[in-house]
Structure formats: C-alpha cells, structure tokens
Design brief:
heterodimer, A: mainly alpha, ABC transporter involved in vitamin B12 uptake, BtuC, 13 helices, B: Rossmann fold, 2 domains, 14 strands, 40% helix
C-alpha cells in the first residue's frame, strides 16, 4: 500500500463521521429546526452501537442500534421543541448534556473492552485492483452510505416535491401551514432523520474509526458537524467538501509534524478549523445566494393555533 | 461545554453525597479531572479508590466527583466534599493545586492529598509517579525490535512530564542503538481516540514501526494491531485491545500508595509529605512483556529490576541537550528539580520542542 493511498484511506475515515452527522443536521435545519444536540445524539449512538455489536456479535446490527438510539434522542428533542414548543437552543444543549451523561452510564460496563470492527467490503477482483481497488471498492458500507446520503439529500431537497415542502416549512412555516402542509409532521420527520444520521455517525466512531468505548469519545465532533452545516450555507455538496477538507487537513498536519516542518504544533492542530472556515467562507461569499439558502424560519417555533 | 457538564455532574453527585452515614467511618473523597470511564488517568485513580474500599471495608466510606474541570469548579467541588464530612480528600490532577490549598486552609483538620503538584501545607501532601522509569525500559525495547530504526511518539502537550518521558524513551533507545530515530507528533489533547488513531496512522505511514504514546486512549495500539506494527500501553494494561501488538504497558498503580495513606490516617500517623515514587514504590508497574523474543523480554525485566533497586537511574550522565550542550556530567544523576521542570530535548531528537 503506497503512502498516498494510505493517507487517502485515513482521510476517508476521519471525514465520514463528520459528513454523516452534518448531512442529517442539514436536513433538520432546512426544515427550520436548530438542533444543537448533535454531539449528544452522536455519543449515545457511539455507546449503543458498541453495545449492540457486543450483544449481537454483529457490527452491522450495532450500526442499526446506533441509528435507532440517535432517533430515540431526536424523538425526545422533537417532543420537547415541536410538541411542547420548548426553546430549541436550550433543549439542544440539554440534549448534549443528557447524551454525554447517559452514554457514560450505559457504557460503564464496556470500558476497557475491545470492540468489534465493522470491516470494509471485499469484492473479488475489484477490491484488489492496484491503486484504486481499496479506495473505491474496499470501504465499509457506512462510507458508501454517507456518499449516497449526500447525493440523495441533494436530489430530494432540490429536485422533488418532498424537498420543496421541507424547504417551504423551513423558510416560511406560516405559509406552508396555510397551504395545508403539516409543519409539525414534516419537522418531526426531519428531526428523526437528523437523529438517525447523528446516531450512525457515533456508531462509526465506536465500530470503525476506533472500535472501543471510552467516555466522551466523540470529542466535539458533533459541534464540528454543526459548524460545517452553517459554513456550507446549507448546501449538501459543500458539506461533503467541508467534511473531507477538514479530515484531509487534520491528517496532513500530523504528517507535517512527523516530517518535522518546524511549524508550531499548536498552529498545525488549529489548521483544519482555519482552512475549512476559510475555504467555505470563500465559496459562500455571494451574500445574496447565502441569504437565499439560509432557512428563514431557522430556530423559530411554530404553533399553528396562535 | 465540558465545564457545563462538570457543573451538572458535580451538582447531581453533590445531592447524592448529602445522605450522610455512620459518623465513625473515615470519610474519603476523590476529585477526578476526567470521567472514570476514560480507561486512562482517572480510571486508574478510581481503581485506587476501589482498592481502599477493598482493603478497609466498613472502616471507610468513599465518594467521588468526576469530570471536574481545573478551575473555579474544582474549588467548589473540593469544598463540597469537605463540608460533607470527608476527613481525607484526594485531588487527582495537577490543575487542582491552588484550589486544594485554598480549601485546605479553610479546613485545617481535613487531610488533603494532591497528585502531581509541588505546593504543600501542613494538611496537604503531594504525590506523583516516576513514569519515566517505564519509558526508559520501553525505549530500549523499541530500539531492539524496530526494523526501520524509527519509533513514533504521540505526545499530548509539551509540558515537562511529557518531555521527560520522550527524553527517557530516547535515552533508553540510544543505549541500544545510538542512531535510533524518533518522530514526535503532538495531538494537543490528552484524550481524543480519533485523533490519536490518526496520529498513529501518520507515524506508521512515515516509516515508524513502533508506536509509543503519552495520550490516554487505546486507539493508537489498535491501529498498530491493525497495521501489523507494535506499541506500548499507556496508564492501563491494554493487551485486550492489541493482543499481538502490545509489547508491554506502563501501568499507573495508585492503590498501594492510597491504602498506605489511609492506613496512616487511621493510625493517626499521617503527616504532610512529598512522595515521587516509581518502580520501587510499586506506583509504576510494567505489564507482562509479550510478543517479544525471549532475550529481549528478559533484558527488559532485568532493566526494570535495576531501576527498581536503584542500581541504575535513566537520567545518568553524560547527557547532552539537543543543541549539543552537556546537560549532565558523566556519572552524575540528574536532580529531581531539573527533572520536574524539564523543558529541553536530549540530543538525537529531531523534533523542535513547541514552546
């Protein structure tokens, strides 16, 4: 395996959890809901993914557990903010705190146990091709799923009626309501989708990235995913670009350090953040387009009868 | 974020603490900087707490507050334990130093034990462990098993504790192979499994075939296992994560010290001290030497014994600094003060120490 290929493989692993979480949150925010609980849903997904794999012996079932537990957390968020119209920002933060605490409690028995790795697929002949074999045909299913999700979300949001409804709810919930769209239902579905994606992202950490459970292992990746959505101006393909850029710079800075380039490591550690923000700000510099893309009702609660 | 979490946890646990039990028991409190589920630093301190419970049973009662951030929160958490009747409090992170002393002043009859600090008072002891003794042993092992002659070293932050470890590792390696190379990367985090794994992959891609780490998770070892490289466990024995890759681990073991100190309190002989223990005090242990040729394992065990008995000290001169200056003269052992404040690399390390 060449160094270049090896670096690319590492970048894919680093980018995938961010991409999964961010693409889910993108849909949530497009529907006008701001869920700051991504980190919390992710960490619960991580511990439940680990637990599910341990209990069933199958990392794939573990990933399903991760997905469902993320949805469970999202359902709680939906109930509080959509049903009871609680403040979305406060509820999202509370969801993160809850997730961190809850996952620690659930995971207590798993500390110090090695996990079960969800390995890459192996297609005869294709996976063994020189150079591109492992890269294109040897990834784990979640990597392909994350890319399919980007394409799917992009298509649904901008090319289908369902996407139009989601965006309408996010841009002007009163008008959407007047047209007979069930705003709450659409938002519930979006929030659940976001939870599923965040849960999977967490599962990716405990099943593929580092197959183990330790408390707080998401280490802020949920917050990075949230930031990616905003800096990508709610565009799926830009989220993809942002996640891979962040992953790539993060890996390359370690190579730069190991190579001994003489740049302070603190600066190199900050580089992924700086580079990602800079690039996404530059590609989103058209302010009119940015405003068009920003969901106008983001974070605003909807109460049909008032 | 972490802070908020800490407050919430401290509050939640604080409520649990108020249910005071029988007064004749010695109440002992612990403050941890991380979650006890980190399988690293805080986990090992909690193992020490459990050892106290196992040793003294009904005679003691222990409580702990985890994930306390190093700042104003710490003072509140420590004071909470003291107000709750704890007669002995272990504060287990460097950053708890000043808060510990502040609270100690207010509660002169409570005995405090602060880990890795250097400020003491009549009722505040300090204790730490000489992990560098283990690092010398693994440095020697690394130089013996490496085929590329290059080790990768994942550092957390460039503080004296970590720099001392890198130097000790390198001195050990150089005693076997004077041309041994070390590649150092800084994760700028104590604890981020994903980042640690990425760092390990980068080091392996750049030609290192032995990985050593001064960060807390088993992730780098898992990477080594997957890539067919080898490495060393940190803080705990991590053999389960890397049955074919872990050569040994430097294990923090606080239990002997903790049990001794509690015994001293029960006997009424406790007094303020400063303990910096290593192999000889059983504060630092080597996990079994595995996946090694027999002679290498035997030599490693022999070196461990030599350091334990005091026959050999890893920082015995001549030691040269990175720039070639003589730091320690031939036959002289570096004093503890210099060791504690170490902010320079030994000769042969190519990395530039971040300042």
């Amino acid at each position: 395996m060449g160094a270049f290929e090896s670096i690319l493989l590492t970048v894919i692993t680093a980018a995938t959890p961010l991409l999964l979480a961010a693409i889910g949150e993108l849909v949530v925010e497009r529907s006008g809901v701001l869920n700051l609980g991504v980190e919390g849903m992710m960490i619960v997904g991580a511990v439940m993914g680990f637990a599910g794999a341990q209990a069933t012996g199958s990392p794939y079932l573990g990933a399903v557990f991760a997905l469902l537990s993320g949805m469970g957390m999202a359902l709680l968020f939906g109930f509080l903010t959509l049903h009871l119209v609680a403040n979305q920002v406060a509820t999202g933060l509370a969801l993160t705190l809850l997730g961190l605490g809850l996952s620690g409690m659930i995971g207590e028995a798993f500390v110090g146990q090695p996990g079960i790795r969800l390995t890459g697929i192996d297609i005869p002949v294709l996976s063994d091709l020189p150079l591109v074999g492992r890269l294109l045909f040897g990834q784990d299913v979640l990597v392909y799923l994350s890319l399919i999700l980007v394409a799917g979300v992009s298509y649904v949001l901008f090319r289908t009626r369902a996407g139009l409804i989601i965006r309408a709810v996010g841009d002007n919930h009163a008008s959407a309501h007047a047209l007979g769209v069930s705003v709450i239902k659409v938002r519930y579905l979006a929030v659940l989708f976001g939870g599923a994606c965040a849960g999977l992202a967490g599962g990716y950490l405990s099943l593929v990235y580092t197959p183990q459970w330790v408390e707080g292992m998401t280490a802020g990746r949920g917050w990075i995913a949230l930031a990616l959505v905003v800096f990508a101006t709610w565009r799926p393909v830009r989220v993809l670009a942002g996640a891979y850029l962040f992953g790539a710079v993060g890996i390359l800075q370690f190579h730069a350090q190991a190579h001994g380039v003489g740049i302070p490591s603190q600066f190199l550690s900050a580089l992924p953040y700086i580079a990602t923000i800079a690039v996404l700000v530059i590609i989103s510099r058209n302010r009119i387009l940015t405003r068009v893309n920003t969901p106008a009702c983001l974070g605003r609660p909807f109460v049909p009868d008032r | 974020m972490k802070k908020l979490f800490g407050i919430a946890l401290a509050a939640a646990l604080g409520l649990g603490l108020t249910s005071a039990q029988a007064e004749d028991k010695l109440k002992i409190g612990f403050i941890y900087v991380g979650p006890i589920g980190d399988y690293g630093w805080s986990y090992q301190h909690n193992q020490g707490r459990l050892a106290i419970e196992a040793a003294f049973g009904d005679k003691v009662e222990t409580t702990y507050i985890e994930s306390v951030s190093e700042g104003p929160d710490a003072e509140r958490a420590i004071e909470r334990l003291a107000r709750d009747g704890a007669k002995m409090i272990f504060t287990t992170s460097f950053g708890f130093m000043n808060p510990t002393l502040k609270v100690a002043k207010k509660f002169p009859d409570v005995m405090f034990e602060h880990a890795t600090g250097y400020k003491r008072a009549d009722n505040v002891s300090t204790y730490s462990a000489r992990f560098y003794e283990g690092r010398y042993v693994i440095g020697q092992i690394a130089a013996k098993v490496s085929k590329t002659g290059t080790a990768g070293y994942i550092g957390s932050f460039p503080i004296p504790e970590v720099v001392r470890g890198i130097n000790s590792f390198m001195l050990g390696a150089q005693s076997v192979d004077p041309d041994f190379k070390i590649k150092v990367v800084w994760a700028n985090s104590w604890y981020d499994p994903g980042k640690e794994a990425d760092a390990a992959k980068a080091l392996l891609d750049q030609g290192a075939d032995v990985i050593s780490q001064h960060t807390d998770s088993p992730a780098p070892l898992q990477v080594a296992e997957e890539r067919g490289a080898v490495g060393f466990g940190q803080a705990s024995d991590m053999i389960k994560f890397a049955p074919n890759a872990q050569l040994t681990a430097i294990v923090d073991d606080w239990s002997v010290y903790y049990v001794n100190r509690v015994q001293a309190v029960l006997d009424g002989t406790w007094k303020s001290e400063d303990v910096w223990g290593g192999f000889s005090e059983d504060m630092v242990l080597m996990a079994p030497f595995t996946n090694l040729p027999e002679d290498v394992a035997n030599e490693a065990a022999a070196m461990t014994d030599k350091i334990r008995s005091g026959e050999f000290h890893p920082f015995t001169g001549p030691i040269y600094k990175q720039n070639g200056d003589l730091a320690v003269e031939d036959g002289i052992i570096l004093d503890d003060g210099t060791l504690l404040g170490m902010n320079w690399y030994v000769k042969g390390i190519e990395d530039q120490l971040p300042q």
